[in-house]
Design brief:
The chain is an alpha+beta fold. The chain contains one helix and two strands. Strands 1-2 form a two-stranded antiparallel ribbon. About 5% of the residues are buried.
Length: about 110
């Protein structure tokens, strides 16, 4: 009888350990999925913001193209090659520029 009780105790612990291990694995997977969901949500927000900013840039390009490079009464955005330069200064005080040829831009609204 003592042997039976010892065996039951060992089997029960192993059984509980297996159940606990499965629960830990399930919770770990759930946490990883939640992290991925948050990452996807964040990326979607970034993409939405970038789309909005690109729409703003395209609107400026549309205005510049329709006004022969003029964006205001006395301001031009074009260089001598009929390209518009868009630039910014990054966190390291480096200037980043993109030159866009207006002649190659097509608009669909």
């Amino acid at each position: 009888m003592e042997d039976y009780l010892k065996a039951m105790e060992l089997l029960t612990v192993d059984g509980d350990r297996a159940i606990l291990q499965k629960q830990v694995e399930r919770i770990t997977r759930k946490c990883k999925l939640q992290e991925k969901d948050e990452e996807i949500r964040s990326m979607k927000e970034e993409i939405s913001s970038m789309r909005s900013q690109m729409n703003d840039v395209l609107e400026v390009l549309k205005i510049a193209k329709s006004n022969n490079g003029m964006i205001g009464r006395d301001s031009t955005m074009l260089d001598e090659n009929h390209r518009m330069t868009i630039g910014y200064v990054d966190n390291n005080s480096q200037i980043a520029e993109v030159k866009i040829p207006l002649d190659g831009i097509q608009y669909t609204l």
